[in-house]
């Protein structure tokens, strides 16, 4: 089932405020690690600090008001984390479940190696978006940079804008949907037929991300599976 | 090396001396193994992939000797006078450093490369003597977590099976930058070993030839590594020691950068270090010997004032208690073993001679860990072969072997008058060859000459 950005049914308590101008990231993360499902937090003045809200392991709501540095929401497990701003390298890296929503742009390696959950980036994502993804769903409103979905193992990446060079290089079983232009495809990544089930899952993903783009405008990409086993004739691709 | 192994059935009828008497001479450049390699390449069109580390002869611990006590230093009584072996790893930043009873740890070897029984045996053996084991490129199994009292969780470029629950369950986290057998290379696991369970743990299709990434997906360079280490500390509330593992190539700089990035422990793996599957050309031609790497890493630590504060674990070709003692005398805080632990479990035992022959190999030569047909049940995922290795019996063998390594190292340390293994020092050592003297930075035996060192005249 697709995780969605829509807010949970759970009763929302008044958010506990954290001002990162006053307190440190360490204190914030410690508090988050001991939070209970349904707790809510508002983080002000993130100031591009690194590792904000990493290792969250309960169904909490976190609103971060401003730009975040590297690895924001890293390894998230169940949290619903919103960044009202831009995110640095590796936002939601290795996420397991929950949602991360970046209202601005994201830097390199967004959603890297993540196993689950939903990452929504309203703006653009830089290079290596979804690198080694292992089950996460990523929806990018704008464009993505080069080498995105490199060695992508599982999960789905939706790009409403254009994709940079070498999309899906050495891809495994992840499914990629791009609406705009793809600068070039990486080794073993090919255009694939959009069947009914793909239109349906894409529609669901777009809805989950709160978007109304039309699935028919997208092209699907995936693995040709020719590099799955070592073969002499593939030596130039190794 | 299945296809290159000499065919035992057509071994030359004449023994070598007889061939020499006939005026026949084998080329040192094109020896028989090289000829077999060339012909294998011509037949198959693909490079050779194998396990183990570098097989070529390089300067090693064998080229060093201990001086022992003399008039100016007095020895300790064997058994009666204490020679400590305990170590603390990771007390720079971690609130829960590892406290081990012996300075010999089990190196990271993946479930996937090794059978579940082999992993369990390693865990049992290590726990029995109070030391740690390490996961590998393939995640943490419940069997291993269950059996290992001290478990180090590897954080590799592939991030197979990486998850925050296992991170929190670990006793230490090891960020792997490289491995001595293949500095600059990613992992490989061939289709035969990607069974359903292995595939699921790695989120890969069953039976594919898996190549894992050689660079981390979300950081490059020491500035990023510092931020990455801080993230791992944040996720685990600054409890766990964080190790950085490097393959020996430029250990002086890599060690210094690891320290500056905030590592608690540096693991330095030399070129003889084992692997589960790598291209032979890579294993034999990339990286530097363990012996050459240690003094460079120690120098970097000393210059930063961090020797003994950031602990150094050395691996790559550790076989005996003498090797343990020599590595420690050169400045290591502990060592790690891979290949030797597998051998202790029965790898390459003459017991399996007939089966190795069937595989086109021989006891003492078997290195086809990638094939998954290990008759000893160690480097395999085949349920029948794995069942040959009883994890309880295997655990006992590992514990025995670790005890022998420790007692041997203590024997040497006492002879040098040291009440703790970590009191061994370079001054206790001399070298047998000019090369090893230059690399280890200890004098050639019987002289005060350290090639390359300045100002060490008589
Ligand atoms: C079968 C096998 C599997 C290995 N798997 C890994 C691994 O997953 N990650 C890693 O960092 N090193 C791995 N290594 C390397 C060891 O951690 C260690 O560096 C090496 O074995 C030490 O040298 P030694 O074999 O001479 O003791 C593996 C080695 C072997 C023999």
Classification by helices and strands of chain A: mainly beta
By DSSP, the count of extended strands of chain A is 11
Biggest β-sheet of chain A: count, sense, barrel?
Answer: 11 strands, mixed
Q: In total, how many beta strands of chain B?
A: 16
Measured between the Cα atoms of the first and last residue of chain B, the distance is: 50 Å
Mean pLDDT of chain A: 94
Task: Determine the N-to-C terminus distance of chain A.
Answer: 35 Å
CATH topology of chain A: Pectate Lyase C-like
Largest interface: A-B, 44 and 34 residues
Sheet with most strands: strand arrangement of chain A = 1-2-3-4-5-6-7-8-9-11-10
Based on the model shown, name its key terms.
A: 238 residues, mainly beta, Pectate Lyase C-like, 2 helices, B: 458 residues, TIM Barrel, 2 domains, two-stranded antiparallel sheet, 34% helix, disordered N terminus, binds flavin mononucleotide
Describe this structure in words.
The complex is a heterodimer of chains A (238) and B (458). Chain A has 238 residues and is mainly beta. Chain A has helices at residues 25-33, 196-208, and strands at 16-19, 40-44, 61-65, 77-84, 97-102, 118-121, 134-140, 154-159, 175-178, 189-192, 219-223. The longest helix of chain A has 13 residues, at 196-208. The mean pLDDT of chain A is 94. In chain B, the strands form 5 sheets. An 8-stranded parallel beta sheet of chain B has the order 5-15-14-12-11-8-7-6. Chain B has a two-stranded antiparallel ribbon with strand order 1-13. In chain B, α8 (251-260) packs across α10 (290-303), α10 runs parallel beside α16 (434-440) and α11 crosses α15 (391-415). Chain B is globular and about 60 Å long. The relative contact order of chain B is 0.17. Classes of the chains: A mainly beta (238), B alpha/beta (458). Chain A binds chain B through residues 25-26, 29-30, 33, 50-51, 54-55, 57, 69-71, 74-75, 77, 89-90, 93-94, 96, 108-109, 112-113, 115, 128, 131-132, 134-135, 150-151, 153-154, 170, 172-173, 228-230, 232, 235, 238, and chain B through 44-46, 158-159, 162-165, 167, 190-191, 202-205, 207-209, 211, 213, 217-219, 224, 227-228, 230-231, 234-238. Bound molecules: flavin mononucleotide (FMN). Flavin mononucleotide is lined by residues 51, 53, 107-110, 113-114, 136-137, 154, 176, 179-180, 245, 269, 272-276, 315-318, 336-340, 369, 379 of chain B.
